[in-house]
Amino acid sequence: MPPLPVAPLRVVQITDLHLKTAPGACLWGVDVDAGLDAVLGRIEERHPDTDFILVTGDLVGDEPAAYARLRQRLGVLGKPVYCLPGNHDFPAAMSRTLRDGPVRCERHVVTDHWQFVLLDSSFPDTPVGHLAYGELALLDTLLASSPDWHTMICLHHNPVPSQTSWLDTMMVGNHAALFGVLDRYPQVRAVVWGHLHAEFSGWRNRVQLLGTPATCVQFKPRAPEPLADDVPPGYRWFELYPDGALRTGVERVG
Hints:
Layout: E1 9-14, E2 26-27, E3 30-31, H1 32-46, E4 52-56, H2 66-75, E5 81-84, H3 91-97, E6 103-105, E7 108-110, E8 114-118, H4 133-144, E9 150-154, H5 165-168, H6 175-182, E10 188-193, E11 200-204, E12 207-211, E13 234-240, E14 246-252
Parallel strand pairs: 1-4, 4-5, 5-6, 8-9, 9-10, 10-12
Antiparallel strand pairs: 1-13, 2-3, 7-8, 11-12, 13-14
Helix pairs in contact: 4-6
């Protein structure tokens, strides 16, 4: 008799919501509420068995009062939602508003076979990504103490060039320090991020590198200057297996 299939851990990533305090606000002419509604509706329709949701930064669009509205919007999913900040967020206000309940800031999520390390790549008064010493130390400590857990690293800014030159001026400036840590730990399976408002896929050694579309406006990849793309909003789904295997895909709402 063949072995029974092993059920994977199912995770969904959304990113770059840019939610405002007023419903119907737009970013680059795109209604951020409409995009988020479409994405959340598709997740509920196609991924009802999702174990939890990752939100990788730019939860709000420069309005700290919008976190209360965001908590309500994501709370209706009935799933744990783990958040980290991006360059348009306000980490202190975000931590205060999302400190408990199903929608909350989180640094470390552990399951039976996988762990998720949520890093803060935002830096005050600049859109450029940076991982402070404390972030790298936390990462190193968690990886050193958990060699048997397959690991996904989550952050907001892209840590590798995206070939979109204007966005790459804001990538993680000390990315070499990040990979100096990651390269020492074979249990790292993937690094995932947002920020690009576009899909990205690549590899570094045996580590998958994945960027995810925004729930609002999309940026045209490889454009030398900021240009909106005409593709719809989206999200990324993951199936994560006990042996470290990973399946993933991007779903756009159309």
